[in-house]
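Work Package 3 (structural annotation) set out to generate three-dimensional models for the target panel prioritized at the project kickoff. During this period the team completed the workflow that converts sequence records into discrete structure tokens, so that structures can be stored uniformly alongside our sequence database. As a representative example, we reproduce one entry of 516 residues exactly as it appears in the project archive.
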Amino acid sequence: MYNSNNNQSWKEYNRPWYQKLGLAIWTYIRNVGLMIWSVIKSIPFKLRDFVFAIGRCFQGLWYRFQKGDWRTRMSYLIFGFGCFSRSPKQFLKGFAWLAVEALFVVYMVFLGGPNLAMFGTLGTIEEGFDEMGNLSAGHNSLKILIFGVATLMLLVFFVYMYVKNTKVAYETQKRVEAGKPLSNARQQINYALNDGFHVTVLTLPIIGILLITVLPLLCNILIAFTNYGYSDGVFHSPPAHLFTWKGFSAFSFVFAQSYGSIIWRVLAWTLIWAVFATFTNFFFGMFLAMMINKKSIKLKPLWRICFILVIAVPDFVTLLMMSRFFGYSPDVNLTGPFNLILQQWFGIKGANVDWFGTYTMNDTAARVMVIVVNLWRGMPFTMLATSGILMNIPEELYESSRIDGAGPIRRFISITFPYIMFVMGPQLITTFTGNINNFNVIFFLTGGGPDRNIDGQIIGATDLLVTWLYSMTIEKQFPEYNYGAVIGLFTFLVSSFFALIVFNSSKSIKQEDTFQ
């Protein structure tokens, strides 16, 4: 019987390779788009669930206040009162809760409160000289911003601890009413070191993440809404000159005004660089590993050691050496070693190539060279990772494929490459995201150059978003911190897209428990 489904499958199987490739790309883009749309559609429901969760939280507070005795109700004012007032055994737990409240009050009175009160203006008094000629201290907008954000984070934590404290007080009351024994100090310490050990160990790292990662990230986002730095002809740098909130003016300047014609060029090159830097390292490293792992190759450990040495040398040393090795100068006698080798060893008279396009303003040469040098320093990482995967592919698969008549190319396409991609898929996506923020290669090789003047703004042909941000906030005489914060936020969003959306859509994550 004729089967239309089988006929359709046969037609799809016999399509030309370029049609299959185009269809695969289109399918992937469509799936990513559908995933983004599903995330957008879920936002109202997530907000609804968040509001309901807050409502349940306050409902629980009122319920415990109604059902609780006077000790439990006192815990709403004095943390830990429902513990240490019931039994000496609960003194350690109650004192810990009381210490949390006391530390919060001290912080709010002496540091958090004053800075939070000025958070709306970011300060009003600038540093200056009084009538007697003495320097008078003023407000510091940056300090107010940092401590204001830290205080808001601490307030969220305090609300969580407040609710938790009432739960502990009510649970202690219920245990007493049921005649159950209360834990003593030794039992509480034993719990923290055994069943609750994960909480004990993870508390300090979580605090570190909040202070070292989350707090700077939030401050950077908020700086994008200020005029911090050189803006409107004035260098707003506290305490001499305060900065204040300016809404979306910095975003308008970066995306629509002076930097509007630049940022999209930089973004395009950043993505091109990330694609080439990632996939050249991946494929060359993979084929290098396959060559070294061939049975006919002798001295395999020696070849691996040669490439491991590349990893052992710090990045900046290798990159600085490469920038000098391929150096160029209009004076032939001052040119780099590679040009001298071409002249003296190979007899190429007058060979003096500007490999990084610094003097000849050759953008293409500079971009090709940074990709090639990055290939040298990044390829060994892929080679080592792929070597471990190749050693663990079952030999029976290759034997079966040979019996079925599969050649080397078919075995690579059907066995080797799927295994490698399944294991290294997440790393490949992570590497791509890391290359978007790959500061070292560009900075130490070309410094972002060769520089161009575009609409009155100096921008390097090899500048990534991250190196452009660096030059804008560090190298300029009058840094533009607010515009740099906008670019930093934009870079974060681009990186997050690939790190989260693409990562979660990969086969390695969807089928992490099995290989097909």
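The longest strand covers residues 451-454.
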